[in-house]
Amino acid sequence: KQWYQRRVRGNFSKVATVILNEYFYNNLSHPYPSDAVKEELAAKCNLTVAQVTNWFGNKRIRYKKTFGKSEEDFKAEQNMEAVENMQSVISPPGNCMDQS
Description:
The chain is 66% helix and 0% strand.
């Protein structure tokens, strides 16, 4: 017998994954559940609070790796559109400055 025991790694149930993903994507602007919410999610999913905490930490990292760049591009596009909209309000086409 070995001097240590290996941990058996298992996946969360499908129901638990659905519940956690649902919370994550519904709160994408701030995917950091409070301690009370973590306790509630842990109870619903039959997990420990530590497991829920780790799941959210891993999910945020994986989400940023996958979508982080495109999210930054999206925000940059939104900012450019906002600037263009402001410019069109400040000097709309056909204003008195256009003498062509």
